[in-house]
């Protein structure tokens, strides 16, 4: 089992920035997928960004449009999501996930371990 704990959410104005962190309770297989998802009430969870630490492959959802950067620090067992130029549409609960080394990177079902979520609110 891997416990994931997110932090860094909060309230910002449009155009602002936040950095989300996701700390894992132990080291994981370097081939594991890592990702951030987000969810708003009444809608399904959607992928935001993905990274595979083994070879630093990264993918982003099309709505990210180069505003976000995902990274992973193996020495700290921590995943990060730097979010810049935030807009009201980015308001959501953000979740980190890991625990797979195969499957569709954007699919919720691919990941075994999930954090509890951290709220991001963007408003003026």
How would you describe this protein?
- The structure is a single chain.
- Helices cover 0% and strands 48% of the residues.
- It has 124 residues and is mainly β.
- Strands 2, 4, 5, 6, 9, 10 and 11 form a 7-stranded mixed sheet that branches. Strands 1-3-8-7 form a 4-stranded antiparallel sheet, with no helix packed on it.
Provide the descriptors you would attach to this structure in a database record.
124 residues; mainly beta; seven-stranded mixed sheet; 11 strands; 0% helix
- N-to-C terminal Cα separation, in Å? 40 Å
Sheet having the most strands: 7 strands, mixed
Count every helix, treating DSSP H or I runs of 4 or more residues as helices. Answer: 0
* Share of residues in helices: under 10%
Cα radius of gyration in angstroms:
13 Å
- Gross morphology: globular
Which strand-content bin applies to the residues? over 45%
Structural class: mainly beta
The low-confidence parts are none
Total strands: the figure is: 11
Mean pLDDT: 94
The helix/strand series, from N terminus to C terminus, equals EEEEEEEEEEE
Quaternary assembly = single chain
